[in-house]
């Protein structure tokens, strides 16, 4: 695992290359060279920025002993790294039952499916497991096609739903689409996302701006007439919070046109936003919800597609058929993760600490002219860096300078949309450690 990079930019940015040259320690440098030689190069991955030797709680440590608070974690570390209760449960399950071939069922897998059905809103009670979120979204799209007899989708530019061809087709991030020669899936329509600060309707106010984007979804559903599903992140992980009424209007449009609503909760679910599901903030229930990343507790890969009971319509053909579909070890990891989130009241903790973080960081709006906005929900929040607050011109170079200042001070996170310092710590973080990280961010911004 490597420290995170500026999202949407090459790993070979000038600042990134310089930071690696000056920061790679004696123990780290050889492994970084081996990594670069061994792996296919791609944006946001190899070659890496740093090494990692240990991961525990909120901390990661490189081979030279440098420690970083990890406020990114690829969204897997809701319960921190190496939670003792989770490690013990996985070890015990390995001794009990380590694998289950398809067509054989097992207690942990069934128990996990039942648990997710209990947690999800009424009606969302049929489950299928995959090894990653991209595949889980593919399953959701297949269900939508089978249930509606249609193939078209509506999704949002700038969204991320995975790296497979189907997931890349409905996704809207250029880095996962622009390299593909030839067409992606047909019928994948895209509209502008809710993002008030960059919307041409911004001068009318955020509510009108956001609902203008919702009306565009409704417009496309009306014009196309045969859309199988709208697939979206209920809260954009960049992060952007939807305007009031946005999802209610989209839900109504879906109901009117016989279109399913799929919510991708892979980064936002499991309590990250201060509710178990991010869509609970907006009083809307989807037809299908997808979970992943943190479901495996930051140790094992597992994702889940949870569909309404009426959408169990694919019994005559395979829609997933994954080798590890009912793996008892990954299922035990997910079950234990859910139990830890409940027993340690991490959803409530996320809400409280998130409010504290946003309130504290909001002081930067008065102290620094390069801070354009503070936004988020729960422990998924961000600081938008601008070069001109009046025009909202993005401060990409400033954001990158701040990013590397924070790394040098022991805090790792990611930059979204080129200029948003996106901070997403584990739900297990203490208020003391959270405040230490916020101090690093504040001092790094004010020191630019």
Structural Rg: 21 Å
Cα end-to-end separation: 29 Å
Superfamily at the CATH H level of the largest domain? Answer: Type I PLP-dependent aspartate aminotransferase-like (Major domain)
**CATH architecture descriptor text of the largest domain:** 3-Layer(aba) Sandwich
Strand content: 15-25%
CATH class of the largest domain: Alpha Beta
Q: Number of folding domains?
A: 2
Q: Tell me, what's the shape?
A: globular
| Helix fraction bin | 25-40%
Mean pLDDT: 91
Number of strands: 16
Total helix count?
A: 13
Identify the strand order in the major beta sheet: 4-10-9-8-7-5-6
Instruction: Please provide the ordered H/E string of secondary-structure elements.
Output: HHEEEHHEHEHEHEHEEEHHHEEEHEEEH
Segments where pLDDT lies below 50 for 5+ residues?
Answer: 1-12, 202-206
CATH topology of the largest domain: Aspartate Aminotransferase, domain 2
**Helix/strand/pairing class, anyone?**
alpha/beta
Largest sheet: 7 strands, mixed
Looking at how many chains there are and whether they match, the oligomeric state comes to single chain
């Amino acid at each position: 695992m490597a420290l995170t990079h500026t999202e949407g930019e090459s790993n070979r940015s000038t600042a990134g290359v310089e930071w690696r040259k000056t920061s790679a320690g004696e123990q780290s440098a050889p492994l970084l060279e081996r990594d670069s030689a061994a792996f296919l190069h791609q944006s946001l991955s190899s070659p890496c920025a740093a090494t990692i030797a240990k991961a525990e709680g909120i901390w990661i440590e490189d081979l030279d002993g440098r420690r970083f608070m990890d406020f990114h974690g690829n969204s897997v570390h809701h319960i921190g790294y190496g939670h003792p209760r989770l490690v013990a449960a996985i070890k015990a399950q390995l001794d009990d039952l380590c694998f289950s071939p398809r067509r054989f069922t097992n207690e942990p897998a069934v128990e996990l499916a039942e648990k997710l059905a209990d947690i999800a809103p009424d009606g969302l009670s049929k489950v299928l497991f995959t090894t990653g979120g991209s595949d889980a979204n593919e399953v959701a799209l297949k269900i939508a096609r089978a249930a509606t007899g249609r193939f078209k989708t509506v999704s949002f530019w700038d969204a991320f739903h995975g790296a497979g061809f189907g997931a890349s087709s409905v996704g809207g991030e250029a880095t996962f689409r622009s390299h593909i020669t030839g067409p992606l899936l047909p019928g994948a329509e895209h509209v502008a996302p809710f993002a008030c600060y960059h919307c041409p309707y911004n001068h009318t106010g955020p509510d009108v701006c956001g609902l203008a984007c919702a009306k565009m979804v409704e417009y496309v559903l009306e014009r196309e007439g045969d859309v199988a599903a709208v697939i979206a992140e209920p809260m954009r992980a960049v992060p952007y919070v939807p305007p009031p009424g946005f999802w209610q209007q989209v839900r109504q449009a879906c109901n009117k046109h016989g279109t399913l609503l799929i919510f991708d909760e892979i980064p936002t679910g499991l309590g990250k936003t201060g509710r178990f599901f991010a869509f609970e903030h907006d009083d809307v229930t989807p037809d299908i919800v997808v979970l992943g990343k943190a479901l495996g507790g930051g140790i094992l890969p597992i994702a889940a597609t949870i569909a309404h009971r009426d959408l169990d319509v694919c019994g005559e053909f395979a829609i997933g058929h994954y080798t590890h579909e009912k793996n008892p070890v990954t299922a035990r990891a997910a079950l234990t993760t859910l139990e830890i989130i409940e027993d340690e009241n991490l959803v409530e903790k996320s809400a409280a600490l998130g409010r504290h973080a946003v309130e504290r960081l909001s002081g930067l709006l008065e102290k620094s002219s390069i801070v354009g906005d503070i936004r988020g929900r729960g422990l998924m929040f961000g600081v938008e860096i601008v070069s001109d607050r009046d025009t909202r011109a993005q401060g990409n170079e400033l954001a990158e300078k701040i990013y590397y200042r924070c790394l040098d001070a022991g805090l790792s996170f990611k930059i979204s949309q080129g200029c948003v310092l996106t901070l997403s710590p584990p739900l297990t973080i203490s208020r003391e450690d959270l405040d230490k990280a916020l101090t690093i961010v504040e001092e790094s911004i004010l020191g630019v």
